[in-house]
Amino acid sequence: MTTRIRRFVETDTGHRVPNHKSKCRHMHGHRYRFEAEIEGETVKESGVSEEGMLMDFSDVSAILMEHVHDVIDHAFVVYEGDTAARQACDLMGDGHRTVVVPFIPTAENLAKWAFEQVAPHIATTYGNALKLVAMHVRETPKSTASWIP
């Protein structure tokens, strides 16, 4: 039998969807929630801090903070082919945090990106097989996208 856990971080991040038929083609931002879903067996080793856990939630948080939050929080994520948005970000000066990505920064694509950033860091420390099985990205309170390979 397997167990699953979820842990999330939130970011304040700007983006635009350049070809969008409606208002999302304009530069705007969201309070994103990136939620990692991890599956595996609980740690059986007696006496260790993680006994009975898949992975300590604080360890999951540290991974999410380093590889997602600290990369895009208070930044503008822009598609490399969106020359208008890139030029606008360039006008903001050196202090502006711009993250250029090779995809249009939709919630769906950001979920896949975050999965790829986090998956290599989900460690099996105490012999329990773990894997990141999904990344869920809430873009608004009513809109969530998931990447499940």
Q: What are the defining features of this structure?
A:
alpha/beta; 149 residues; 3 helices
Strand-helix topology:
Blueprint: E1 3-15, E2 28-40, H1 57-72, E3 75-79, H2 83-91, E4 98-101, H3 107-118, E5 130-140, E6 143-147
Parallel strand pairs: 1-3, 3-4
Antiparallel strand pairs: 1-2, 2-5, 5-6
Can you tell me the CATH class? Alpha Beta
Broad shape: elongated
Strand proportion, as a percent range, falls in 25-35%
Going across the biggest sheet, name each strand in turn. 4-3-1-2-5-6
**Unreliable spans:** none
Main β sheet profile: 6 strands, mixed
Order of helices and strands: EEHEHEHEE
Detailed description of the structure:
The protein is an alpha/beta fold and 149 residues long. It has one domain (3-147): 6-pyruvoyl tetrahydropterin synthase/QueD (Tetrahydropterin Synthase, Chain A, 2-Layer Sandwich), CATH 3.30.479. It is 25% helix and 34% strand. The protein has helices at residues 57-72, 83-91, 107-118; strands spanning 3-15, 28-40, 75-79, 98-101, 130-140, 143-147. Strands 4-3-1-2-5-6 form a six-stranded mixed β-sheet. The longest helix has 16 residues, at 57-72. The two termini are 20 Å apart.
